[in-house]
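Subject: sequence -> structure tokens, single chain

Hey, anyone have a minute? Need the predicted structure for the following. Not urgent.
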Amino acid sequence: MGDSILDMYLYETNTLLEQLDGILLAAEEADTFSEDSVNEIFRIMHTIKGSSAMMEFSSLMTVAHRIEDLFFLVREKGMDIVPEQTRPDLFDMLFQAVDFFRGEIEKVENEEPLSQSIDHIVNKINSLIDKIQGNPGPSEEAPAPAEQAPAESASEAPAAAPAAVNEDYLYGIHAFFDEGSGMENLRAFMLITNVKDYCSDFVCSPDNVETDPSTADIIADQGFFVWFRTAEDRNAAIPGVKNAGSVREYQPVDAAKPAKEEPAAEAPKAEPAPAAPKADAPAKADAPAAKPAAGQQQHAKESLISVNLAKLDQLMAVVSEIVITESMVTSSPDLKGLRLDNFTKSARDLRKLTDDLQDVSMSLRMVPVSGTFQKMNRIVRDMSKKLGKKAKLTLIGEDTEVDKTIVDAISDPIMHIVRNSMDHGLEETEADRLSAGKDPVGEVILSARHTGSEVIIEIKDDGQGVDTQAVLNKAIRQGLATPDHDYSQKEILNFLMMPGFSTNTEVTEYSGRGVGMDVVKKNVADVGGTVSISSEWGKGMTTTLKIPLTMAIMDGMEVTVGDSMFTIPINSIQSSLKVGSQDVIHDPHQGEMVKIRDNFYPIVRAKDLFCMDKGRENIEDGILMWVEAGEHSYCLFVDELIGEHQIVVKPMPNYVNSFGVKNFGITGCSILGDGSISIILDVVNVYTAAHSAF
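Reply:
Had a minute. Here:
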């Protein structure tokens, strides 16, 4: 139970922080917070504070509490109370707070101890509150009542029996909140929410704390009362009061019958009916008072649920087994030669339903890339300030949906490429850009689009681009290239993604362009994707990621070599063709090539690559599969073409992977309808393995 509560806390807090980041970026651009933004930030901080208090994460709770106090002032008095010269400090403090929250959440996820020293950020918040309160007007109003009243009223409370708000509710608890805590009405609302866990039948005084901020002064002055029907109910609810945040002291009180000495302002509160439902309301400071609106909000929430990714993985595994089993049943050798019309019709219906089930289960895992894309706004904003470069981020196609596991895997690569564009792509100064005839504000474009079974993500900047000659010279010095070889621009740019390549010191204007790009390439390759780079000197650079929509189920072409079956992903195949021995050209290294559409492509023989005993030797007897992935394009020679099938991708067992089969282009396997196993080929690694063998 504890784990599920923690998971929900982490999920909710991370979601709120992403939302907060977006609000802050938009507000900084406008140099002010709209009324809606102020309310939203107040609500977010209120929620983080309450949930962190429940989880006993005191550092998170304290920081959220102080920011909540700050935005309470802004909400009450408007943005006009924040001086123009203070606003940059306000934005910086909030961004710093978001980073603090993220860091603490990461510690929680990694089961590390939370920060004990939070003075640096709390002092910043307090300093801003002091500056805001230092303005004429709000300074004398906000803190004074909260600082003085409770101490006096606490001593006076036991002196006389208070009057109940309803003659049926005579057993009460009288609570006082911490001196100077502020927003006592919202603290009272949190107390109500706590008490409801122990007893749902009670009324409060004041009773409209959620919607009426003016009750804060009454509570600070006179305390807050919760009234119960019986002494047993009251005793049961005491832990709820005790555990509520910011409660300084509380005591049981027995009420006199409702009398005239009750303050006039509280007289209308004698209706118990509205109070109980309020205890059911969600713990949001700015929740609407009107009940129909609350009902609609509840309905909207119910249409969305959060599901653990492990359960979706389990669902996908079951669906995959259904796909395999359906194929095994309908392709059973026992059925050969039999005329079974009804069975065939039922099999067709089953196939359609299986496809529908598969599509639905896949769609459950699909999420838009917008979450990942939006995070890049923060990267661009922070680096603009750090580097002193003016830049903007343009997002295109952020509604494009990709498998959840793939979105998680590409988040870091995209972040790294965006950082590279900011640090090394864009010109150092506005003068450099103006002299090149460009807009002084640099632009990074992040786009995503679907192409059949792939999603293509492009990170493009309008900076200075890559000096290919400088990169080639560096590659030669590092022993990655030979001086006498004539390299194409694409081959030179590929040096940027080689593990040993670095451009740090000598070519300073491109320093770091390739540092870490090998990690980007590896991370993208791990999810079956490819990375390619294009650049034009003086115009900018574009990095393109091609990534499969999902890795669980795919369309593949079945081919045979000897007695073995192989699957080639459909999206890698350009065409299949038959050629004669006269069409094959031999290069000086004894390699074979074939001419297709005025271009020459190397031939890779699967039989030789995998050292197989059986398989066709003569080029006329087999078939060439023209395949392409990333910058590699070649022809794979196989025995026969069986046909296209939808296959379930199964990972190779660990003991097989330990032999390095992935380096030879074996990426996984699939179980076919007749129960046999087909090896799935990764056409990029097949080419790399064949190339190194030659």
